Amino acid sequence: MSELATENNPLLVAIVGSGPSGFYACEALLKSDLAVKVTMLERLPSPYGLVRSGVAPDHPKLKQAIQVYAKIAEDENFRLLANVTVGKDISVAELLDTHHFVIFANGAESDRKLGIPGEDLPGSHTATEFVGWYNGHPDYRETTFDLSHHTAVIIGQGNVAADVARILSKSVDELRHTDIAEHALDVLSESKIKEIHVVGRRGPAQVKFTPKELREFENLELCQTIIDPAELILNPESGAELEDKSNSGQRKIYQQLSKLADIQGPSKARSCQFTFLKSPSKLLGSERLERIEFERNALSGEALSQSARGTGDTFELNAGLLFRSIGYRGVAMPGLPFDNNKGLIPNIEGRIVENGEHLTGLYVTGWIKRGPTGIIGTNRADSVATVQSLMEDLKTLDAEIDKSGADGVCNLLLSRNVRYVSFEEWKKIDQSEIDRGQPKEKPREKFTYIREMLELI
Ligand code: NAP
User: Fold this and answer.
1) Position 99 in a domain
2) Are residues 222 and 175 in the same domain?
3) Could you give the C-alpha distances from 284 to 117, 147, 190, 297, 410, in angstroms and in order?
4) What's the rounded Cα separation, in Å, for the pair 194 and 413?
5) What pLDDT score does 402 carry?
6) Is 19 near ligand 1, meaning CB less than 6 Å away?
7) pLDDT tens readout for residues 280-323
8) In this structure, are 321 and 333 located in the same domain?
9) 102 CA distance to ligand 1 middle (Å)
10) Which numbered atom of ligand 1 lies nearest the CA of 378?
11) Which of 68, 97, 137, 250 could disulfide-link to 132, CB 3.0 to 4.6 Å?
12) Which of residues 257 and 266 earns the better pLDDT score?
């Protein structure tokens, strides 16, 4: 047999997950000097992961990354097998039987828990559910949100919390011409929410928003942003943090918060208040969420590593709706090790390890490798690094071993009556969504049920 990773004996790599980290790993492989064929597996019939179902509908520029991924998918050495769940329709062992290497890029599909009484009362939701719902993710199509309450509370001060707050704050006219799912726009148009509180456990110098995301709260049609200037007064350690050379990004964010606190204007139908140094300690209500008990926090520790600790001083806020936006969490994949504390697949430089030993042929990239941090572009460098580890390991492979690649996977799926969706078929779904959006002047009207997508093809 000819040498591995040459035209007659290409390297066969399976990538699990079609979000940014999966596509950047694919790009790095296909751009290399080696002959590589990539099989990408995706649980939904639609590719692109959180770029399709996480990025907010009013952030169309961020979604332009999809154009890059679609171009990669046109490469003759790329095959998409969507609507296939790895661990259920096909096992990790079968992927490794059919491919030389497997890269897991399946993201962080679950959420961190607050771990407080009442967390699961009706009316208390994860941000993931809400984001998936307004973005038309089929998993959340039947989830319902009762927006008939006066007050909604968002716990957490990262960009996901900012997205949720903005979607609740905006008027229907501000969202109408985005790719927001129709069912969500209908419910939002009936929203009775007047007050939104975005609550951080630490102070204004430690929030995880980015300045651009905060700027969007300067001028919302229906909603005024409120920040109590007294809450922007910093303890000495936080002052030192903002003076630190390494922390200029955080300084900009603090300046943006100060600017928002200074904005004076006519009162509007809704308000969105950013508030700090508070943690929910109990969610209260007989049948559903009615009130939230908060504890006031103080910061402790040295500058740049301060944490929040409760002061024992509590108060209650009436609220019928709560979103926990405190970070995503990875989910274990059958057949792979999992670090339950961190919610990650244990790895060294992208090589999946168990008891310190590399599991030959298995790699990981993106949020399931490093945790749910960073923006879309962060995944490019991460995936390039994983592919580099994989390339270094090439020499350990036996070139004589015959692998069947995507065809082998397709045969197994067909024998199990799994209806996989190719990239060509996805393009039909894609075009149909764009056509459905046109009369409403929307970039697309997404299909929100898997059966609708499968019926179309
Ligand atoms: P994140 O940025 O990690 O923010 C999580 C927030 O939850 C932090 O304020 C954190 O506070 C807080 N938190 C964590 N545990 C908590 C607890 N037990 N009680 C109260 N608060 C708690 O996570 P994210 O907002 O889910 O975003 C994930 C990643 O996606 C981020 O890198 C984000 O920038 C990115 N993203 C980007 C965009 C965009 O570019 N437009 C949009 C959405 C998401 P502490 O700091 O105290 O831990």
Assistant:
1) yes
2) yes
3) 8, 18, 25, 20, 51
4) 50
5) 86
6) no
7) 999 999 999 999 999 999 999 999 999 999 999 999 999 999 99
8) no
9) 29
10) 32
11) 137
12) 257
Structural domain containing residue 181: 113-326
Which whole number is the average pLDDT over 249-271?
Answer: 95
Q: Given 305, 326, 347, which residue is the final one in a domain?
A: 326
Determine contact, residues 166/120, Cβ cutoff 8 Å: no
Our mutation pick for probing the ligand 1 site, out of 326, 367, 379, counting the most ligand atoms within 8 A of Cβ, is 326
> Is residue 307 in contact with ligand 1, taking CB distance under 6 Å?
no
Q: Is 365 in the pocket of ligand 1 (CB under 6 A)?
A: no
Query: Cα(103) to centroid of ligand 1, in Å?
Result: 26
User: 283 CB contacts (<8 Å, ≥6 apart)?
Assistant: 116, 117, 118, 119, 121, 124, 289, 291, 292, 293, 322
Q: Token digits for 281?
A: 């300690």
**How far is ligand 1, taken at its centre, from the CA of residue 162, in Å?**
9
Ligand 1 atom nearest the C-alpha of 373 is 32
At 40-77, the pLDDT tens digits run 999 999 999 999 999 999 999 999 999 999 999 999 99
* Amino acid sitting at position 160: V
Task: List the residue whose alpha carbon is closest to atom 7 of ligand 1.
Answer: 326
103 and 127 inside one domain = no
Residue 443 within any structural domain of the chain: no
The one-letter code for the residue type at 5 is: A
| CB of 22 sitting under 6 A from ligand 1 | no
Residue written as tokens 């910093």? Answer: 234
Locate 424 and state its tokens. Answer: 């060509």
| Three-class HEC string of 160-207 | HHHHHHHHHHCCHHHHCCCCCCHHHHHHHHCCCCCEEEEECCCCCCCC
Assess whether the C-beta atom of 170 lies below 6 angstroms from ligand 1. no
CA–CA distance, 376 with 384 (Å, rounded to integer): 14
What does each C-alpha distance from 25 to 105, 255, 381 come to in angstroms? 9, 37, 9
Supply the CATH number for residue 130's domain: 3.50.50.60
Task: Determine which residue's CA is closest to atom 42 belonging to ligand 1.
Answer: 159
Atom of ligand 1 nearest to the CA of 308: 47
